[in-house]
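Re: that chain you flagged

S.,

Sorry for the slow reply, it's been a week of failed gels. I finally had a moment to sit down with the sequence you sent. For the record, here it is as I used it:
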Amino acid sequence: MRTEILAVGTELLLGQIVDTNSAHIGEQLAASGLDCHFQTSVGDNIGRIVLALRTALARSDAVIVCGGLGPTQDDITREAIAEVMNVPLRRDPEVLERVREIFTSRRREMPANNGRQADVPEGATVIPQTMGTAPGLICPLGSKVIYAMPGVPYEMHDMLQRAVLPDLRARAGEVAVIASRTLRTWGLSESGLAEILAARIELLGDGTTGVPTIAFLASGIEGLKVRLTVKAPDETRAAAALDAEAAEIRALLGRAVFGVDTDTMESVVGELLAEREWAIGLAESLTGGLVASRIVSVPGASAWFRGSIVSYATEVKRSLLGVSEGPVVSESAAREMAAAAARVLGADVGLSITGVAGPTTQDDQPPGTVFAGVALPGKEPEAVELRVPGDRDRIRQMATISALDVVRRRLLDLV
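Prediction finished late last night. Pasting the structure tokens below so you have them in one place:
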């Protein structure tokens, strides 16, 4: 069964709110094994809503509409659906009484406008409201169907699980499983990633049942994501197909893959440290504590994180960390800072960051110049020069995850 999502609301088109509803519905459809090929947004205009509904019904079996079921004059989804169905709206006395009871329970009198929420296209089935005043609708049109739900997210979530998805599954009969897995990468450009995986993408084709598809998602300072999606008869075969393809991708990308699904760079570094029962200490300059902030967001980080010395001023680097005279934006300064972080904080591993966030140069180095230092047990401290793009904030954010990636790779070298 082909499904489609139509989000109603001029505020979506103006960018005043972000359409999280369509994303949630799409995710739930995929989890239920139901194909969703289109997501559309339309403003509060009855002619355009009618056109959007008719366009959707021409290419899909089910259309899930979200929004426009409130009591105000611009809530016109009911009227648009009735026009597409070519039926009148009938005021349902049971729905009207339910809406009135909600107001009575709040010791308020129901405004006359709320009576519109009891208007139901003839032939439609009401989805009772349990959290607000706007009921949902199931509207059959021959072999096809329109579902209408409120735009308030928690009301929509409830109706989707309670009524829409069960009805869709019943109409679809036996459905396959659609499953995804995301490999998270750092250190490659999107074009470079696509070039490495080009032959693999061509070999897999457009995703017949049981064969995964590959897609890329650029996530800014969180890296590039490689999303694998497969449609299979059951969860076991879907998982097996994803396992096999993930292994192929890892073989091609190597250590550029740092995690899977909800992994973060800092959580992966924490796992590597915990495996060795090591702790890490930081010396941060241009990042000003950003690395520490990311680390402490990981549950259980206290087991492997000692702390961070935010040595922003040059004199602090010299007096507290013992950095030698000379440029503080340099490999030598980064090495000394890393060794001092481990020593002063009583950590096994030291990680340091020094550099230029901009907008002006420092130590004759341009903005975006970053040095990450790493001190590991039994090894001489080393430093890596990084060049990161962007404005001041982006440079600091990019430097943070890049430095964590440096220590990740060094820890993997020890395996």
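What I noticed first: The longest helix spans residues 392-413.

Talk soon,
D.
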